[in-house]
Amino acid sequence: MLKLQGLNAWYGPSHVLQDISLEVKQGEIVCLIGRNGAGKTTTLKSVMGLLGKTSGSIRFDGQELSNQPAHSRYGLGLAYVPEERRIVPGLSVRDNLKLGLVASPDKHREAELIAHTAQVFPRLAERLDQMAITMSGGEQQMLAIARAMISSPRLIMLDEPSEGIMPVLVDEMFELFTSMKAQGTTILLVEQNVELALAIADHAYVLDQGTIVHHDTGKALLADVEIQERYCSV
Amino acid sequence: MAGLTLDLIGMQLFAGVALGAVYVLLAIGLSLIFGMLTVVNFAHGAFYMLGAYVGLWLMAHGGNFWLCLVLVPLVVGGIGLAVERVLIRPLYGRGIDYPLLLTFGLSYIIVELVRITFGKSGFPFDTPELLQGAVDIGVGYFPLYRLFVIGATAVILFGLWLFLERTSFGLIIRAGARDPLIVRVLGVNVAQVWLIVFGMGTAIAAFAGLLAAPLQGVIPEMGGTILAEAFVVTVVGGMGSLLGAVLAGILVGVVVSMTSLFAPEMAKVAIFALMALVLLIRPQGFFGRAGLMS
Ligand SMILES: Nc1ncnc2c1ncn2[C@@H]1O[C@H](COP(=O)(O)OP(=O)(O)O)[C@@H](O)[C@H]1O
Ligand SMILES: [Mg+2]
Prior knowledge:
The complex is a heterodimer of chains A (234) and B (294).
Chain A: E1 2-11, E2 14-24, E3 29-33, H1 40-48, E4 53-60, E5 63-64, H2 70-75, E6 78-81, H3 93-99, H4 107-120, H5 122-125, H6 137-149, E7 155-159, H7 167-182, E8 186-190, H8 194-200, E9 203-208, E10 211-217, H9 218-223, H10 225-232
Parallel strand pairs in A: 3-8, 3-9, 6-7, 7-8
Antiparallel strand pairs in A: 1-2, 1-4, 4-5, 9-10
Helix pairs in contact in A: 3-6
Chain B: H1 6-37, H2 44-60, H3 65-88, H4 97-118, E1 134-136, E2 141-143, H5 144-166, H6 168-178, H7 180-185, H8 190-216, H9 222-237, H10 242-262, H11 267-281
Antiparallel strand pairs in B: 1-2
Helix pairs in contact in B: 1-5, 1-6, 1-8, 1-9, 1-10, 2-3, 2-4, 2-8, 2-9, 3-8, 5-6, 5-8, 9-10, 9-11, 10-11
Bound molecules: adenosine-5'-diphosphate and magnesium ion (MG).
């Protein structure tokens, strides 16, 4: 469904990603791990079209994305929840959710989709008219995920969703990922919470200094303590 | 001070609100453009002036004032679209000073072109017949046209409020002013939104220029002074805040109007004194976010 081949990326003069190739198949959870600064965020940003300079191929459903502007990638069914969550201050929870729909506004379906989202995310249901910024970090993260999911994307990319969140909510979140997968959403997950992530991942890639150094099934990597220690421990 | 009655003060208060209405219209455009695009638009006064001249031209070619109210914002808004698309867009991402200098230069070019086309001297602008005369507002007879200016401004503000609060595009503007990246990631072509916002801002400036024309006549330099005052309004209200622009606009109008009652020569100075005072107490203005410019 998503296939990167020979992806390179630069921030100004610094060459951050070198020949990244990876594949996310339809209906899978694929996990991207590696220590801080390895290039995980940069990989997701490249797929979303947010970097100035990249080379190589990014194919989504067989369609080449490299020359598509960032905003049209969302319309193709590719959603992205950035690391900083980016809940918009000054907007209610409801308006933040609506933002997920503004690219193709449909007033009739809007209410229905918000109601549906509230069912899937009961924590948000009680707070729809609250200012989003007053919620806890975990709730804001749920909102960021809900906002990206409201338009039913086919693939969602999540950047360290469990970072800085209470353990209870982290478990809830990983259950959510499993059920999102069961509903047919494909997931590309970047996580520091390596064990939890590998436990739900079909496949996993290990990034180090901008290159992919290892690739295996989630299960196999979960058992491979040596690799985990070498590339993921802080 | 013998003639100073409560009625007179009441009248002057109304006159201040009418003056403030014009400030408000200019300041919301400035604020909208700054809030979304981080462009400090020094050509805003020139668009205001163009509004008056386009109105003058339309009236001389058989148009009437009511038609002008619709056509002037469309024509000048169209010019604004072209300016953003061709001149300002290449400067995004280069820092705040590039578009500032560009629009500064552009304002001189526009004023000079108007001087060449229409001459250096000004023109009177007739108050539309329907709006001539005065009406009793309780404290005295108030010029009907000024009431119309207040009313028209209220209508524009209400329309803008509905647009921002009730439409998808309005939601994009509210969110995009805070975080352009997230709206982009959620599928919005931000460049197009900026274009439209710039066009809207210039259209409202032109509308303000047309409204002001019957009050003070039309001259090529009319945009310059009022732009400085409108900047004061946006700074007092808080850069990027629309509510701030509205409240500060009315406040500045009333302060000017009241000062001219007591000490006419101090009226324009009072604006800047007010700004200094507000900035001392609250550097980000009434509703501005602290650290917006850093
Ligand atoms: N905006 C930026 N400008 C310059 N270098 C950056 C920027 N963002 C990240 N980098 C660098 O790129 C490398 C990869 O960063 P990133 O993709 O954020 O890593 P990760 O998400 O795996 O922690 C790091 O060396 C980091 O310092
Ligand atoms: Mg990261």
